[in-house]
Amino acid sequence: MEVQVSTFGAAILKVVVPDKAGRKADVVLGYGTVDEYETASPVTYFGVVVGRVANRIANARFSLGGVEYRLLANNGPNALHGGLKGLHKRRWEGRKVHDADGNESVQLHYTSPEGEEGYPGTLHVHVTYTLLRHANELHTSIVATTDEATPVNIAQHSYFNLAGHASGTILGHKLRLVGADHYTPVGATLIPTGEIAPVAGTPFDFTSPQTIGSRIDKVPGAAPGGYDHNFVLFGMGPQAKFITKHGMASDKPKLAATLVDPASGRAMDVLTTAPGVQFYSGNFLDGTSVGKGGVRYGKHAGLCLETQGFPNAINEPKFPGIVLEPQDTYHHEIVYRFYNV
């Protein structure tokens, strides 16, 4: 297994894993050069770390401590993934380290100053990627501290295609979301309505393995259609607000999703400490993004499983809170485990 990481955007550039016949392929979408990550239009967020607040904030504004903060609207009327120059557009400090067991890590750090992209407080963010070769696991640790109360919801935004990044669509992949018996329905601009709704009897039911393309045409919503929704993990459902401190669902990563490509036999488990996962089926990819090796990524060329707090949680009191206080530490753990079936 091989993983390549960039200090620009703390991006995962490449993940190479074998299939059931031992043939290796790069299973994440991305660009070939850092320049392309800097200048890409439209912004695709291939493999980067997004924040301070991942996902959408309604009407690009929120109130905290009696003060209203206005953000840049970069997704219709809403703020998306931390703004135009969120964590995904920053150059991080990085170094490579080894442990006694032969595992390799890349440690990255970025300081987001007071007022950057409209957010209060100075935020220190540390991301560590660790490759456990013996287990074919990539561990991601995201830690943040602040000197002033501020919303924090940082996510890893890799697009996966287990058949290989240049292989076509992910519609034949099978997905299971563990304990995700509820999701958060959205309105016209993909902002959650505030409801935490059951998935039973809907195209959102992935509590058992389902082929992604089998019901994608039945997902309600305007063009381009498809999945771009937050699922409530671990059977928490409407009780999602009764979770651990700092917006996490647990202190240690738990199995949240299993993805399988039947053709290649490659499979991936996603483990996380976060209470939600945004399943995005690559609906807005339209062939204009030219990736590694000159590949044009079309609709559904990859999918994202962004473990996170809930979208617009800063404005929705029913959702688990995402405000980080100066005396606390934000700690989000993710594991991508690869194997063959």
UniProtKB/TrEMBL annotation:
The lineage of its organism: Eukaryota, Viridiplantae, Chlorophyta, core chlorophytes, Chlorophyceae. Coiled coil: none annotated. Transmembrane segments: none annotated. InterPro entries: Aldose_1-epimerase, Aldose_1/G6P_1-epimerase, Gal_mutarotase_sf_dom, Galactose_mutarotase-like, GH-type_carb-bd. GO terms for biological process: galactose catabolic process via UDP-galactose, Leloir pathway; glucose metabolic process. It catalyses: alpha-D-glucose = beta-D-glucose. Keywords: Carbohydrate metabolism, Isomerase. One of its GO terms (molecular function) is carbohydrate binding. Beta-D-galactose binds at N55, R56, H157, S158, Y159, D228. Its EC number is 5.1.3.3. It is an enzyme of class 5 (isomerase). This is Aldose 1-epimerase. PANTHER family: ALDOSE-1-EPIMERASE (PTHR10091), GALACTOSE MUTAROTASE (PTHR10091:SF0). Pathway: Carbohydrate metabolism; hexose metabolism. Belongs to the aldose epimerase family. Pfam families: Aldose_epim (PF01263). CDD domains: galactose_mutarotase_like (cd09019). The active site is at H157, E306.
